[in-house]
Amino acid sequence: MNDSARRESGHLMLITPERVFYAGLLGRPRQRCPGAFHVYVSIEGALWLTTANGGESCGELAVVAPDVRHTIASDHRAAICVVIEPESVREGAFDELAARLSGADGPVFAQRIRAAFRALQLRQYGDDISNAEFDTMCFGEALPPRSLDPRVIKSIAQIGRFCGEPVTAASCAAEAGLSSSRFLHLFKQETGISFRAFRAWKRARHLLHFANQDLNLAHLAQDIGYPDSTHFSHSIRRFYGLKPRAIFSGSRDLAIYRSDSGVPGAGLRQGRA
């Protein structure tokens, strides 16, 4: 499918280093467990959110924290999903926003996010959109960035390159001048996420850049750092609730825009040395 036909479909995804705005097919409702904050908004009708602990809700907007197993379904075949990477915002900031999104102002936020979808369809935002511009577009205000140790920021950028030799904790530790154990402790202390879990999520997230392309999935898995196709398929199903092939077949009409605003970690502020 050519780019013109994809734009006409109305389905789109804007990917920045620390944000994603997706408007497209949800796929069959299966349990998923992504590693970032997710805000779902219905395009038409209602959404049904079910979490692994038995929680259920229905409405036009749903909020899910990172690493929470859940199923999302919609009256309409397509829905909007806004993704915020947890290491990019001050600790507790998204929890404060989630309380507002889930409260009386929820319908106002839903309308704002739908308006953002219409603006993106008209390409009213450039490919260099910043985190602050993205957040203001969706929520009416910029989320406060998290201050991180510069050594952790550097390791996040290394993980996000997806080229050359796979990035390991040992290689990041050596680059930071720390022992592996000290680096792993520092990474989790700063981001709230273990190095291994962080790398696994970023690897699966990187798949989104290629979702509308006709590619050999085994080759893609190898290119983005998966040791084999089985590991690739298992990881993608865990994070997205869909097999890789289902994601690609459901994304053929998806227009994908990528931010040129920087590399992962560019929106993070340096804290103590």
Task: Kindly list the characteristics that best describe this protein.
273 residues; alpha+beta; Jelly Rolls; 6-stranded mixed sheet; globular
Number of domains: 2
What is the average per-residue confidence, as pLDDT, rounded to a whole number? 90
CATH architecture of the largest domain: Sandwich
CATH homologous superfamily annotation of the largest domain = Jelly Rolls
Biggest sheet, open or closed, and with what strands and sense? 6 strands, mixed
| Continuous helix count | 11
Structural class: alpha+beta
Distance between the termini: 49 Å
Report the strand count.
11
Low-confidence stretches: 262-270
- Work out the radius of gyration: 18 Å
- Approximate helicity band: 25-40%
**SSE order in H/E notation?**
HEEEEEEEEHHHEHHHHHHHEE
What form results from the Cα inertia axes? globular
Report the β-strand fraction as a percent range. Answer: 15-25%
What is the CATH class of the largest domain? Mainly Beta
**Biggest β-sheet: strands ordered side by side in the sheet:** 6-3-8-2-1-10
Assign the CATH topology of the largest domain: Jelly Rolls
